[in-house]
């Protein structure tokens, strides 16, 4: 698979358990819309740190994008479990996931990105986006690797396998997108 061959996403608009909506666009681009009223997976507070199997560039269209990059070190006594997302997709839209090890996370490198600013994330770099309010970004996938994405969850918590990416209809998701643009346009 070369860097520009990505698996097709069936839905043009979908809900993500990290509290944002993804809209599939041409040219390997995705519109991401964070909205404070969107549902999140039940373990979100303990499992927001994650990586991607692809590198990407993201540009802030509205709001302030907070991005924290984490250094992650394998450690059998670490405070987080590594959750591998390489299982098949469930009927609820997420990938079946499992604990694949323990890690230690170091203090994050905090980045604050304003409207018009861009940032780059290399594949497999751990980060989280603790945004508040409405944030809208345009993400462009660049190259894709062969290792599946992973999340980290605080040790002692169970990863939420039951989050339903289809709990809101496409119409309801589009209504959130419209509301987000209205809020930032005021």
Descriptive report:
The protein has one domain (13-156, 170-185): Jelly Rolls, CATH 2.60.120. The chain is globular, with a radius of gyration of 16 Å. The protein is mainly beta and 186 residues long. The longest helix has 16 residues, at 170-185. The chain has two helices and 13 strands.
List keywords for this structure.
186 residues; mainly beta; Jelly Rolls; six-stranded antiparallel sheet
**Percentage of residues in DSSP E strands:** 35-45%
Helix content: 10-25%
Total strand segments = 13
Low-confidence stretches: 1-9
Between the first and last Cα atoms, what is the distance in angstroms? 44 Å
- What structural class should be given to the helix and strand makeup? mainly beta
Number of helices: 2
Supply the CATH class: Mainly Beta
Report the CATH architecture: Sandwich
Characterize the largest beta sheet: strand count, sense, and whether it forms a barrel: 6 strands, antiparallel
Topology as a string of helices (H) and strands (E) = EEEHEEEEEEEEEEH
| Residue-averaged pLDDT | 92
Shape: globular
As laid out across the biggest beta sheet, the strand order is 1-2-3-12-4-10
Domains counted in the coordinates: how many? 1
